[in-house]
Amino acid sequence: MSEKEKYYYSITEVAEMFNINASTLRFWEKEFPALKPDTNLKGNRKYTKKDIELIKQIHYYSVTKGMTLKGVKAQLARNRNKKLRNKRCRNITTIKI
């Protein structure tokens, strides 16, 4: 199975993707409630592509842009609100009168 076909990634794989420590990912899980990877029976984390997309955003704002975690949380909230507004607008424009 190729990496594109994987459904889950280990904490080590995800940490390597972003060149960060596994402890950073565990810390981000505590700070960002939306980042909640599944775990197997042993308690090992299983990150989905959705989790990785969120990590990508957190990494971009905190590491690349140098924002504080408070700033990252605010930015993610703004992004989420913007997506909701855009989604509502698309729904309104598709309603036929």
Structure at a glance:
With 97 residues, the protein is mostly helical.
Keyword list:
4% strand; mainly alpha; globular; two-stranded antiparallel sheet; 97 residues; 4 helices
SSE topology sketch:
Blueprint lengths: L10 H8 L3 H10 L6 E2 L5 E2 L2 H16 L4 H26 L3
Antiparallel strand pairs: 1-2
Describe the structure.
With 97 residues, this protein is mainly alpha-helical. The chain has helices spanning 11-18, 22-31, 49-64, 69-94; strands at residues 38-39, 45-46. Strands 1-2 form a two-stranded antiparallel sheet. Helix 3 (49-64) packs across helix 4. The longest helix has 26 residues, at 69-94. The chain is globular and about 40 Å long.
Q: Count every beta strand, where a strand is a DSSP E run of 2 or more residues.
A: 2
Mean pLDDT: 87
The DSSP helix count reads 4
Inertia-based shape: globular
- Which ranges are low-confidence, i.e. pLDDT below 50, for 5 or more consecutive residues? none
Distance between the termini: 49 Å
H/E element sequence: HHEEHH
Could you say which structural class the secondary elements and strand pairing correspond to? Answer: mainly alpha
Indicate the proportion of strand residues. Answer: under 5%
Integer-rounded radius of gyration: 16 Å
User: What order do the strands of the largest sheet run in, or round the barrel if closed?
Assistant: 1-2
The percent range for helix content is 55-70%
**Most strands sheet:** 2 strands, antiparallel
